[in-house]
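Hi R.,

Here's the chain you asked about this morning:
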Amino acid sequence: MKRAPAVILPAIAVERASARPLHRQIYEGYRDAIVARQLRAGQRLPSTRHLAAELRISRIPVLNAFEQLLAEGYFESRAGSGTFVARAVPDELAVPRSGGRPRQPPSRSAPRLVARYAASLRTDTGPWFQGQAAFGVGQPPIDAFPLEIWSRLVARIARLGDRSLLRYGKAMGYEPLREQVAEYLRTARGVRCEASQIMIVGGSQAGIELAARVLVDDGSSVWLEEPGYFGIQNALRLVGARMIPVPVDEEGLAVSAGIERAPRARAAFVTPSHQFPMGVTMSASRRLRLLDWAQSTGAWIVEDDYDSEYRFGSSPITSLQGLDRDSRVIYIGTFTKILFPAMRIAYVVIPPDLVPAFMAVRRVTDMFSPPFVQAVLTDFIREGHFARHVRRMRLLCAERRETLVAALARERSLRLGVLGDAAGMFLTASLPPGTPDREIGLTAAREGLKVLPLSSCALETPAKRGVVLGYGGSTNAEIVDGAARLGAILRRMVPRTRSRSR
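And here is the predicted structure, written out as tokens:
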């Protein structure tokens, strides 16, 4: 009888008395072993049954840990052979270089602050962002927000009569909320942080602009995802950055292309967990390469983690910041995508030595975020309402995504390709090359749909054409009706494009 080759078990220990779940301990043990080169690319891993027996625990946490490592690209499964360390993780990047001259520590000083209005600032965002209609991008399921609970908390905070909430707040934010956010990020997103590093800001766009002002000098080269989020593009135009578009493929930002175009760039702005607008997740290999580039050149990475809670095929992908051993990553997250946009509360996780620079800029911009709303949000998180809401919204958005995918599939004559992972509150549908997706977006807007053209997210002439369709803020009935109306628009416009190309 043919036997599978013996597998050496790595030194992964679990602590049953620890507050960290067993699956998280196993996941972090394997991930750290791969990053530290204790496990090499292609190395075979034990079966989940064997590992569970060796650790003397249930098989369920082992299965959960392996599923997450497969989703993030650290493991790969081969039919009939078992599970292996992914070959795409480069050995030379998984561990600090040894031998030769040691690296000189890169400069960690913040550049001079630049605040100028650039003539090229894009203010024409298009009609796809005006008003509320089916497929609006960035709209969470407001119809499912627990307004009664929120109202009760607002009334309770008001009745307490704490007048300190009516005074000027601190530049870093309301301390109890910062403590809650730090605990949440460490647990749910794998972020390495303390409350002292967290700054509460007025939405993720405010965090992006703040990071641009602190990190980027006038004329500095900055990597941007191509196509990418126009809000990041505007923030960098505002400070006079030299924007370097770096292509995005199925593994996320093409780091090698960025190095080729601007090896000494000052910073890279990325959306690694769910890239906007292509919807892909940056692979483990690309994450390690990006971190290695930043450490070796003294560059900064700004991680915009705008909708990480919405992931349907697996647990949320661990943050890029959680892999950073050199404090080169500024992490930005937001509550507006999971709760409601009008809240305007987001957070920035700042490397400790940059906190004074961020505070200096904050004090000359909006000074602080409203303490009263922060106090309400603190209780919303502390009492478990936030965690329950996240679970409900994940299920609801997964259902709405399935409804949209099925509705687009019924438009068989159009052969629309759905791009990106099963995550977030939007998907991108590809269109034939040369399709005037901007004209389609304008036509859809006139007919009551908010369809974002993919080309509007690009700095250069885009290689792909498509439409970005939000489903988070639309009901299933609105999605089905909107997909039918969009299909009619495409049938009118796409064939004419093809005939002209002949």
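One quick note: Residues 476-501 form the longest helix (26 residues).

Cheers,
M.
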